[in-house]
Amino acid sequence: MPELDKLEFVGREEHLNRIISLVQQTNKLRVILVEGRGGIGKTWLLRALQSRLNRVQVGTTEIIDCDIPVFNDAEDLYTQIAKQLYDSTYQKWLLELRQLREDENCISQTAYKQERRQLEKFLVDEINRKSNQQKLVFLIDTVEKLGQPEAREEVWQHVGDLCHQLDNAVFILAGRPSIARQILEKSFNKEELIYLELNEFTREDVQTYIASKEEQLHFTLGQELAQKLIVLSGGSPIMIEFGVEYAYREVIPDWLESEDIETIPGRLEKTGGFEAEMVRHITQLRTSMDRLTLLLSRIYPLDSSDIANLLEISPEDAHRLFIDAQTYFFIKPVVGGSQISLHDIVRDLVEKYVWTDIDPDLEWRKRDSRIAAEYFKQKDYKLGPQKSVLNIQDSSDNSQKSTSIEFLIEEVKQLREFNTTRWLWNALYADAIAGFETWYEVTNTIRTQAKKFSFVNQLLAIAKQFETELTPDKKLKMIIFESRIVHALKDKKTTENEVRKLEGILSEQSANSTHKADICNVLGMLNAKLHLYDEALKYQQECLLLVQRNKLSAIPGVANQVGYLYRQLNNFEEAEKYYKLGWDAAMEVDTPNKGLTQVMASIQNNLGFLYGQQKNYVKAEQCFKAAIDMWSSVESEREIADAEIASASIWVDDGNYVKAKQLLERALSRCDNEENDNRILCRAYFQLGLNQWFSAEIPNEDVWDVTQVKWDLNLLSQAQDALEKSLKLAEKYGREEELPGILHQAASVYWLLGFQEGDRSLCEQALKLNDRSYHTSLEYNDMRYAIDSLVGKAEFDYYAKAYEHICDYARELSDRFRSYENIHTLYFGRILRIEGDVAFQQANYDFAFSKYAQGIPKIFQHGGFGPYSIQHELNLLQKKIERLPIELSKTLLQQLKSQWQDRKALKEWCDQQMFLTRIRATKQPSSHA
């Protein structure tokens, strides 16, 4: 029998002609949506449109088929669209898309949406450029499969937005009924969107259809057989195609040929109907094509090499089979013809009728999946070195060639991700329990090392397909894994929901549950992310108790987290205790691996910061150096930069601004990629801003009030620039935890610039930034900056001599944040000092000094920093005292001393001031001017 060419399109002439007419005549048309059930002829209609539109000088793309597993979102569709435009468009699109996906969980939602819109605009501009001379039609099939089920509404909103922006292009979308119609009809009017529904053929249509097929293939079906197909097909084009194809290939089922039309319906009732018999007959071919059809019903798309390996045949035989398969109506070429897939309705029918008959215990399918899993695993592994070679070339080539190599790297990444998904899906299908362990190992590596969270979520969706086959233990492990993903995301509400979910799960765990420690650990991290440090500490301490009994290797990491939480709660003694507990546990390991080295370095870094806060700068520097040396041993540049920033922050507090600046500049020099290093850059610029601000104060021994302090405007401007950079990074990359501090400190710098220059607009900006800091702090439970920004409101009002609201701020601080007074003593001390300054300005000296008596010890307890250091506060207080009459000064100093009996250093300071006042008494008296 001669080789059969793919059957040409027949029927649907009315729809075909109408679509062509609409495309040619209507300038406002943007979308034609063709819907119909599976097998109704949508794909054939698109093929015919492609051919005929080209004949009438309308540009058409290759048919883009969404029926392959890579179409997870709108951008996957856009990738195939970009591929149909220009090579340069596709290259730039692919590189920009990778950046967008890497940014998805690294930048704020606002910045992400803006970046996404910019990328979409690039594609729109390229489509409009291509269609400038000739109308362009995009043919897209099986659109009901576009996007993950839970996100399809959003996907179609994006597709609709893109179509709205096209000047001279039309999207022809074909698929089964889906949400697409509902979304698109909301977005377009009747001139912009045309909806067509394909229905079954009438009896007359079927007769015409069969006659056309006979003429096209130059053979006669026979009146009796044709009549049977007319009756049995129910007007379904795909059922007619089955009958015609079997007849032409001379493999028609015996019962269809021999039985009377009157008896056939009774027979079909017992076997599942005409469609069941038609698809079952595929297995009667008993050829390599039969095996390929069964394979494609589960694993698709496939190229010639895939077929050779999965069917275990020679490459030559596989190539011949690949070519021959495309002559069957139910096989369709995809991905530009490089791969083949089974028509989706045929795939559904094979799954429904064939596999249940021939493989009731799933062993055949599991065997296929075992072979496929191993095959795709090897393909995945081979792509790793290929990417590494390209990376080396990329680092050594010129910029023009480098762009081309970056594109090739991106193609390899995409291919590797596709192979990874097929590997893991088949591993899970072959054996859900063993496959889950493979899935967990691979996916967790991608989560922790590559941090490609959009891909991790795709892999998570694959594992969830097999959730019912997993043991309770494995299900719980997957839930915990998903919670760790949530911890890496930026969504506060999702984090809160995850906490509630895990708390419910934890309450159901037995005392000896193997996952209880993991649940507590994740709950600790999630609560810490929400700044709920007491709750976080409770869970991490429980986790530590559990790992001390069952998992000694986890002690260093968990103890380090417990120490961090105690430091956040200002319990330095307990923090040090647990840092050292983690360190001692790590020292029990004779040969530390990279992971343990990272933990040990982190402990030293945390100890350095702790000692720095306690003003023990020698020990702090020793620990920071140890941390840097450890991170250097495992080449962790980012962590080294973290240690340098932490060390710099201590030197800023100590007033060693030159050393702090050197460390910060060194940390910044380690950052070569904003997307990857945004957290470090954000923190480094923040500390640099503080450093430049604090160092900008111009010393003046005659100053007695904070409003008289003068600042180096050049240094203040540098501080403003650094803090603005930090703010932009925090906003762009969704660093919500950094926002309260940046906003407040930027507000302070804006205020000082505006106050000294007399620029009211800068002062207004300062008020807005500080108010935003206050509300953001409350939203994210950052009590430190909620308190600091509230004190900032009082400070700004004091500068502006708007004294009337300062007592309200003090009352709010006491009422709302009283429980934090012992943790944030500096800010409670400052609000009291500000109240004292107001009273001093109003010559109410007794009240002023009663406030100083309360506030200064609190500032002393903390030590302060920069313009808020205890030394700075005492210097200003000394100058105030010098402005008062001698006897009043003595009386007030005596009152201070009597209230500072338990503060030896402050008592000594009072004695010093008393002696200086006596010296002053020998000279001319002073008065408060």
Protein described:
The protein has 42 helices and ten strands. The chain is mainly alpha-helical. The strands form three sheets. Strands 1, 2, 3, 4, 5 and 6 form a six-stranded parallel sheet that branches. Strands 7-8 form a two-stranded antiparallel sheet. Strand 4, helix 6 (152-164) and strand 5 form a beta-alpha-beta unit.
**First-to-last CA distance:** 115 Å
- Mean pLDDT, to the nearest integer, reads 89
- Model regions low in confidence, pLDDT < 50 over at least 5 residues: 1-8
Q: State Rg.
A: 37 Å
* Share in β-strands: under 5%
- What overall form do the CA principal axes indicate? elongated
Short account of what is shown:
With 929 residues, this protein is mainly alpha-helical.
Describe the SSE topology:
Layout: H1 13-25, E1 31-35, H2 42-55, E2 59-60, E3 64-65, H3 74-83, H4 87-103, H5 109-130, E4 136-141, H6 152-164, E5 169-175, H7 179-187, E6 193-197, H8 203-217, H9 223-232, H10 237-248, H11 254-258, H12 264-271, H13 274-280, H14 288-296, H15 304-310, H16 315-325, E7 331-334, E8 339-342, H17 344-358, H18 363-396, H19 399-430, H20 432-450, H21 453-464, H22 472-488, H23 492-507, H24 516-529, H25 533-550, H26 555-568, H27 572-587, H28 594-613, H29 617-633, H30 637-654, H31 657-669, H32 674-694, E9 697-698, E10 710-711, H33 713-732, H34 739-757, H35 760-779, H36 783-799, H37 806-817, H38 825-841, H39 845-862, H40 870-882, H41 886-899, H42 904-921
Parallel strand pairs: 1-5, 1-6, 2-4, 3-4, 4-5
Antiparallel strand pairs: 7-8, 9-10
Helix pairs in contact: 1-2, 3-4, 4-5, 4-19, 6-7, 8-9, 8-10, 13-17, 15-16, 18-19, 19-20, 19-21, 20-21, 20-22, 22-23, 22-24, 23-24, 24-25, 25-26, 26-27, 26-28, 27-28, 28-29, 28-30, 29-30, 30-31, 30-32, 31-32, 32-33, 32-34, 33-34, 34-35, 34-36, 35-36, 36-37, 36-38, 37-38, 38-39, 39-41, 41-42
